[in-house]
């Protein structure tokens, strides 16, 4: 026979998977759950811990337990895909908000990331990606102006890659990626709907043209509960 906490766990999981408990819904307090299920606090805490461990809820200190979105968006680790292309594959309403667009001089950090000489011009593009009404990705793009002479608001709100390939005739070939989990920053708080999250998944992209020229450095900051990072691997024999 299942223990009491596991029975409670299964009942709540069923409600989440059937949509009876929607994403961001706050669960009843521990005291309320004790009354609902007529069990001890320890039993409720075991059920909540299991729910959190398996990705169904997030417990936020001082606020309670909240249902997570279990329908995550697949983000290919090995692919080189624009947000517009990703959006077209998803059955979800999406929107791009352009926060910054300017030409800047490369500082020491960008010189290192883009392999530039001092004071070379770089496009700085800050875009917020909104999916199903939630701002969940912050994209910080830096493009070597030597390869991209012009960018406009319209281009950035549509697809930079589409413009580079179709209008400029550039051939985007490959990228090196680094994925880390970091503490959120004030910039993340400013632009994203974090809903209590204190960590963020950062994907750094170093993108190259067909002739192996490094032309773009991107820092893409994802809310951790909304994405599933996927890849395909084959063992060599």
From TrEMBL:
Keyword Transcription: yes
GO MF annotation terms: DNA binding; DNA-binding transcription factor activity
Pfam families according to UniProt: GntR, UTRA
InterPro entries given in the database record: Bact_HTH_transcr_reg, Chorismate_lyase_/UTRA_dom_sf, TreR, Tscrpt_reg_HTH_GntR, UTRA, WH-like_DNA-bd_sf, WH_DNA-bd_sf
UniProt KW keywords: DNA-binding, Repressor, Transcription, Transcription regulation
Tagged with keyword Transcription regulation: yes
One of the protein's GO biological processes: negative regulation of DNA-templated transcription
Annotated HTH gntR-type domain residues: 2-70
UniProt superkingdom: Bacteria
Protein name per Swiss-Prot or TrEMBL: Trehalose operon repressor
